[in-house]
Amino acid sequence: MTELKVTLPDSLARDARKAGLLTPKAIGELLRDAIRRRAARVFLSNAEQVAEAKIPPMGEDEIQAEIDAVRKARRKARARRR
To answer: What are the distances in angstroms from CA 20 to CA 4, 11, 48?
Structure first.
């Protein structure tokens, strides 16, 4: 577990406490949501670059091959850590 110390303006801390957002569970949910939103923004910015580059879309077989390759690499990486 990691412990964090956060300094907030008093009014924000008061409002967050009233809303139940200063609990470990709530802060974890807020961070997970922020991580997902950031990943979506990165994905969309990459999608715009791909569209501008006029890269042809991948077919289902190509997509599945990429997914399989990533999964295989992750399995190998996990096996090395053991």
So the answer is: 17, 14, 38
